[in-house]
From TrEMBL:
Native source organism of the sequence: Streptomyces wuyuanensis
Sequence similarity: Belongs to the asparaginase 1 family.
Pfam families according to UniProt: Asparaginase, Asparaginase_C
Classification lineage: Bacteria, Bacillati, Actinomycetota, Actinomycetes, Kitasatosporales
Hydrolase is among the record's keywords: yes
Occurrences of domain Asparaginase/glutaminase C-terminal (ranges): 205-317
Name used for this protein in its record: asparaginase
Length: 340
């Protein structure tokens, strides 16, 4: 069915016991040796790095992004599978998706149980990711996990330990995997891909600040004092905070700092309903609502806008483009969805 390149980055799927806990140390060949190959699929391996995903930095993620583009420059490659730790998989997948304009799939997967576990989920997830990479087209970047296919945008880790680790709490999955095939249920419209960013000497700082009872602007302003060029405000409810936070947002926006507004609630969009420091005031102060994107992916959206240009107005435009029509999750359901 195809020639698939597996990019190995570490995570639980590559983890072994270290004496006090598990950590990634296996290479891609060792991980790949655990999984059955779908019929007709040939695999090549790129050992990019092997780290626990909470240790990933923007530099790691940009290296992964450039590697994906380099691999797809070969027209003989039919698709890519990225093995990745589950803790920050949603962020890396979304970053790659924002810059992906090729019909060939990039499929992220991983595991909740370590390499060599007798009941491990890694081999099955890797097999399913290879099958998805070999038999689908035009879905963008996706996550294949526990027999399901999810879009990169909006999908987050919803379970710390259970095998069914990923979902979009505000939307449906793209498809199911089973009986040797991928059944694609829907498509989403995606915003035009961003150009591949340059690799900066120092990545822009983007911080996340969560609102709570008794919260003031101290941590928000501390992020600015530390040099943050972007801040994600993780608000309550449909995107609400306080008048003091709204004042801090206005001051940050006047300095050219990008502020994105999301919510700590699991599902549903940020919506301008309330004043007295609610989303009405926060958006008026310059915060950009992120639809149904949650904190980690909202941060990636801000980071991508900062990497795209140094002009503050253009950065705002790029952020709004990234969050535009695709954030609405508009669906198409043609009869012959993604089978090739």
């Amino acid at each position: 069915m195809g020639r698939i390149v597996v990019i190995s980055t570490g995570g639980t799927i590559a983890s072994r016991w270290q004496g006090s806990g598990f950590a990634a140390d296996a290479n891609g060949g060792e991980v790949m040796a655990t999984a059955p190959l779908p019929e007709g699929v040939s695999v090549e391996i790129v050992d990019l790095f092997s780290v626990n995903s909470p240790r990933l930095t923007t530099r790691h993620q940009l290296t992964l992004l450039r590697t994906v583009h380099e691999v797809l420059a070969d027209p003989g490659v039919d698709g890519i599978v990225v093995t990745h730790g589950t803790d920050t998989l949603e962020e890396s997948a979304f970053l790659v998706d924002l810059h992906h304009d090729d019909p060939r799939p990039v499929v992220f997967t991983g595991a909740q149980l370590p390499l060599g576990a007798t009941d491990g989920d890694g081999p099955g997830n890797l097999h399913d990711a290879l099958l998805t990479a070999a038999t689908t087209r035009g879905l963008g970047v996706v996550i294949a996990f526990d027999g399901k296919v999810h879009p990169a945008r909006g999908t987050v880790k919803t379970q710390t330990l259970a095998p069914d680790a990923f979902a979009d709490p505000s939307g449906a999955r793209l498809g199911n995997i089973g009986f040797g095939r991928v059944s694609v249920l829907r498509r989403t419209l995606r915003s035009a891909a961003l150009p591949l960013p340059a690799a900066p000497e120092t990545a822009p700082r983007v911080d996340m600040i969560m609102h709570h009872c008794d919260a003031d602007a101290l941590l928000f302003n501390a992020a600015l004092d530390a040099g943050a060029q972007g801040v994600v405000l993780v608000a309550t409810g449909a995107g609400n905070a306080t008048p003091e936070i709204a004042e801090a947002v206005a001051a940050a926006a006047s300095r050219g700092v990008l502020v994105a507004l999301t919510t700590r609630v699991q599902a549903g969009p940020v919506t301008e309903i309330y004043t007295h420091g609610g989303a009405v005031d926060l958006v008026a102060a310059g915060a950009v609502p992120t639809g149904t994107l949650r904190a980690g992916q909202a941060r990636i959206a801000v980071l991508s806008a900062l990497l795209a240009t140094t002009d503050p107005r253009e950065r705002d435009r790029v952020l709004r483009h990234v969050l535009g029509e695709a954030a609405a999750g508009i669906e198409a359901r043609p009869a012959d969805l993604a089978r090739v």
